[in-house]
């Protein structure tokens, strides 16, 4: 249900609110959650932002990020004690409960009013209110519309809120290169700049702020860990556990790697298969008609968007690579 009046009613008196995002959050999940928390706090609500797992270190400059609770650092009991009673729960940038990982228990209480803000395909019906638009480039875009409805004037969006939303928009669109970028996306960006975003500095903080070891890792990955299969118009990286140690990789340090595979001429499908914590995480990207969200859903217990999706595998890294190559044989390139 997409009903602003219900949300306005819920927010009419001070509430105890928790904002959660998906595990392994990206800039859209984290930025949209932080923008929302800034808005809600300004309106007099008590707000906690929780991420199931650590957020990317390269986003540690986002306004309000230091107050984010990282659920994997606490036991369930300690976390519940910290957050106390919850009236409203906002679920940001996901609409499938499994994306909360070990934090999924937070959805179980029937007394909490749950609101989803998201743009992923095939949502589950676990919330009371959905602000959901699969055509939106990012959850930040959905949240922007929501703020306009709630605040009634875009000039009331603060520079900090706008900065958080802009971070989500540039990363989910890959700096406005992905086909999810629409005229509306650009109009929203123009509005965000008028609200005070320093667009150049945000671009710099996200893309030109790498540690030397991260840059060395990218160079190593391109020269040693890239598999190019021209017959299948596919290129993919295989990142081993040892690579994380060797380059002292922090959370989020592999983000953006998949785009190097996709940047190859005649490559229409790109992937990163990375081994971490006894799982293999799969990032998929495509150009044109290949629906990677369907591949992620069918084979890797995941999902996402047509041209950008992800999932996980419980098989070994080698077995996952074999499976991935088998899957390629079933795709009509
Ligand atoms: P990334 O490759 O950047 O981690 O993710 C690309 C897109 O796929 C994002 O929109 C992300 O939310 C989605 N995605 C990544 N991993 C998963 C997953 O395990 N399950 C689902 N449903 N979506 C995922
Ligand atoms: Mn998103």
From TrEMBL:
Domain DDH: residue ranges: 16-168
One MF term in the entry's GO annotations: nucleic acid binding
Pfam families named in the record: DHH (PF01368), DHHA1 (PF02272)
Q: Could you name the domain of life of the organism this protein comes from?
A: Bacteria
Signal peptide coordinates: none
Using the record's annotation, list all stretches that form the DHHA1 domain: 246-329
Task: Quote the Gene3D superfamilies the UniProt record gives.
Answer: 3.10.310.30, inorganic pyrophosphatase (n-terminal core) (3.90.1640.10)
Protein name, per record = Bifunctional oligoribonuclease/PAP phosphatase NrnA
């Amino acid at each position: 249900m997409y009903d602003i009046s219900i949300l306005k009613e819920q927010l009419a008196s001070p509430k105890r609110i928790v904002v959660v995002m998906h595990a392994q959050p990206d800039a859209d999940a984290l930025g949209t959650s932080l923008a929302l928390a800034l808005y809600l706090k300004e309106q007099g609500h008590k707000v906690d932002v929780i991420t199931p797992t650590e957020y990317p270190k390269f986003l540690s400059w986002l306004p309000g990020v230091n107050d984010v609770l990282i659920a994997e650092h606490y036991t369930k009991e300690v976390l519940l004690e910290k957050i106390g009673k919850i009236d409203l729960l906002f679920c940001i940038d996901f609409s499938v409960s499994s994306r909360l990982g070990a934090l999924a228990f937070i959805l179980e209480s029937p007394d909490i009013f749950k609101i989803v803000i998201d743009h992923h395909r095939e949502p589950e019906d676990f919330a009371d209110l959905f602000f959901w638009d699969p055509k939106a480039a990012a959850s930040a875009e959905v949240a922007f519309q929501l703020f306009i409805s709630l605040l009634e004037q875009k000039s009331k969006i603060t520079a900090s809120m706008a900065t958080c939303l802009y971070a989500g928009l540039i990363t989910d669109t890959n700096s406005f290169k992905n086909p999810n970028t629409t005229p509306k996306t650009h109009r929203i960006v123009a509005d965000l700049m008028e609200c005070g975003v320093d667009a150049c500095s945000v671009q710099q903080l996200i893309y030109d702020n790498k540690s030397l070891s991260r840059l060395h890792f990218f160079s190593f990955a391109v020269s040693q860990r890239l598999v190019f299969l021209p017959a299948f118009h596919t290129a993919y990286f295989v990142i081993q556990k040892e690579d994380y140690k060797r380059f002292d990789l922090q959370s989020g340090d592999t983000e953006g790697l998949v785009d190097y595979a996709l940047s190859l001429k005649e490559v229409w499908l790109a992937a990163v298969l990375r081994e971490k914590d006894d799982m293999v995480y799969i990032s998929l990207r495509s150009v044109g008609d290949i629906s990677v969200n369907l591949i992620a859903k069918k084979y890797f217990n995941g999902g996402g968007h047509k041209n950008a999706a992800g999932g996980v595998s419980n098989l070994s890294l080698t077995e996952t690579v074999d499976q991935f190559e088998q899957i390629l044989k079933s795709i009509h390139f």
